[in-house]
Automatic annotation (TrEMBL):
Domain Phosphogluconate dehydrogenase NAD-binding putative C-terminal: 191-258
The protein's name: NAD(P)-binding domain-containing protein
Molecular-function GO terms, alphabetical: NADP binding
Database matches in InterPro entries: 6-PGluconate_DH-like_C_sf (IPR008927), 6PGD_dom2 (IPR013328), 6PGDH_NADP-bd (IPR006115), NAD(P)-bd_dom_sf (IPR036291), Pgluconate_DH_NAD-bd_C (IPR015814)
Top-level taxon of the source organism: Bacteria
Source organism of the structure: Alkalihalophilus pseudofirmus (Bacillus pseudofirmus)
Residues of the 6-phosphogluconate dehydrogenase NADP-binding domain: 2-139
Amino acid sequence: MNIGFIGFGEVGFEMSKGFYSQGKNLNLFVYDHLYKNIETKYRAEKVQAALFDEPLKVVQQELNILFVAVPASYSSEAWNSILPGLNKNTLCVDLSTASSETKQRICKELSNKDITFIDAAIMGPLKGNQHKVPMIVSGIGAKEFIKWGKTFEMNLSYVSELAGDATNIKFIRSIFTKGLSTLLFEVMEIADKLNLDDTILDSITKTIDKEPFENVINRLITGNVLHSERRIKEMDNVIDFMLNNHVEAEMTKATRNKLITITNSSIKEKFHGKAPLHWKEVMQKINET
């Protein structure tokens, strides 16, 4: 079994450690633009991988599977650099966070050469999980990749045959996960400054834990339909409060701005001033415009 990596940073190294630990008969071939770096050489030695100074040399190794694990901004460049050497017997998996449009374009270019492209989105922490990190996958070759991954007990979930769908799901989920983590940072920053952190933590915990999460979503989204206009003024006051305490209010300002957008959409009038029963009704109305 021959496995290749273009990009041997955290993603490539952690997954390689996982594959290597399986103890199966496999060969690892890797390239990273920092191939001269001591750390890169150490990583390659750690998993007994052949480290090359050119990406084309990796794809010339009769690979069963190739992972491209580079930063999003270098994804197109990486695929272009190896395209002349790819063959149709290799499953080609993009692990980057490039946009769905970029992945669809790359998929089309590879498909024109009868090469199988898979869009894979990493959905959990690599450390500890390594190659078994949860991933969602899409593209024509997604099911074949899942079948291959079972050999190494990979945690792969099928999304669709359309490259880019897995990335879209990851991006939408990131709005929540990254947004929530940053919002909590801002909340606890001002709470700690006023020695109210334990009180605020207790208050938020009681609010979130008192009912199932879908009920929380339903209550928060439908509540904005009727009350967005009033909440704009409240958030203006909160922004003044934070600035008076010398704490930047970026997330709070974003909340205020979104409430303005919701109010200007006239969503309240579409429900004739009555509270929607379910958040899905709200999304259907807002996306009609």
